[in-house]
Amino acid sequence: MHESATTNEIKIKMKTKNGLLLLLLAIVLSCSPKVTEPAISEESDTETAETTQATPQEPDNPCATFADAANTDQVKRDYVLYRDFLKAEDWDLAYDYWKKVYAKAPSADGKRNTVFADGIRFFEHFREVAKDSLEKQAYTDRIFEMYDQIDQCYPEGGFIKARKAFDFYYTYPERATRKEIFDLFKAAIDQDGLETPDFVLNPFSALLVELYFADEIDEQTAQTYQQKVREILAEGLANCEEDGSCARWEIIESYAPTRLEAFETIRGFYDCEYYMDKYYEDFLNNPEDCDLLRTVYSRLKWGGCAETEERFAQLIETANQNCVTSTVNTTLKEAYDCLKNADYECAVASFEKAAEETDDSEKKANYLLLVSKIYNAHLKNFSQARSYALKAAEVRPEWGEPYIVIGRLYASSGPLCGPGRGWDSQIVVWPAIDAWNKAKSIDPGVRDEANKWINRYAQFMPNKEDVFIRNLQVGESFYVGCWIQRSTRIRTSD
């Protein structure tokens, strides 16, 4: 699931001479290409939203205020009336009064963009209920015209660019290329810096990764803006208690850094300190786990850390004491050497060759599972990681460890298959639990570990309300897409 924006709950931040103002925008999850807007005068508005909503008369000056209107008191009364009817969701009557205000004083008192923001709400609503595709297209045009007018009358900051990009990304993707959407987000970040709104970071992070690997942006741009994302996130988390936005920033924290892990597959993209900060504590917490020690060692080596560095030296000393691999098998020695030196393609090829060379099913399965872990931890290729885990399970059918690995692959895919929280990120837990249940059903030796993961992740499944509002039922079959592409069974956390 992408980062969701609940209808009528997204706040617009606009800086004016009098300070920061919070306003509400609605997002309707639909999309249409742009066409010419039908020209319907204010006076001809006699039809309902189910047929054709009249479009408002364009103001001579989109920045005109109450003070500019010839009948100021009447326009103010119309403003109060449309706002009251809008709160009551009497859309048609509210729209009648809104059009009068928009025609005479679209900038209200000159301190807020409320009339424009409400215009977006109206056109999103009318677009949602319209049955004719041309009407939907015309309402979409009006939405973006409202954005343009806000930017014209309240030009400070990059917020409107960000809001446009957000809508292009999630609701109207056919109206702009991925690169155009990226450039809008980028311009907003360049303007607002550490004050960039939280809703920018998740889609921008996804586009940053996507466009880099599609060769549409260069490495320097990717490095610069992944760092900006992290700095904006740190700033937001540090100050979120002031405006009660911590829950929103925590959603970003659960997604953006994980999405940016894709750049770990590029040697030199991140420096040594990045890998130390991310992986070294895993070693300190599990100094006897040899697989983990090899992973941390390899990650530090990949990041260019010097083995003489104090922390790295401590890891090497511990590994030499607990995890020395003695072998006369040339292929296997080569495989471990390649892994140690962060040559992952060589390690994969060598472990595959070692698996082919042995008739011992236990050793063969172990080597194949090591390949699975390399694809997961180092190459970030989850499909290949699953493929080799399944090959290991085929060689040794009574072994539960491959399914432990597969379950963890699925469970960790929330940020890849959704925004880190919410429905699309939660449903990955279902196939994960399926894998862990299979692991303990075939191998009593992994029962405790499987139960540990099940207990940890069961709380993250959707709740009954999430299932109900989608007209689904607990227990019925459900297909999880993304890279997982598996059928599972609906369960809830409550």
Describe this structure in words.
By secondary structure, the protein is mainly α. The protein folds into 3 domains: 176 residues, no CATH class; 79 residues; 95 residues, no CATH class. 58% of the residues lie in helices and 4% in strands. The strands form 2 sheets. Strands 1-2 form a two-stranded antiparallel sheet. Strands 3-4 form a two-stranded antiparallel ribbon. β1 and β2 form a beta hairpin. α17 packs antiparallel against α20.
Short description:
Helix content is 58%, strand content 4%. It is mainly alpha-helical and 494 residues long.
Reading the helices and strands in chain order gives EEHHHHHHHHHHHHHHHHHHHHHHEE
Specify the overall morphology.
elongated
Low-confidence stretches: 1-52
Number of helical segments with 4 or more residues: 22
Average residue-wise pLDDT: 86
Please give the domain count. 3
Distance between the termini: 21 Å
Helicity range: 55-70%
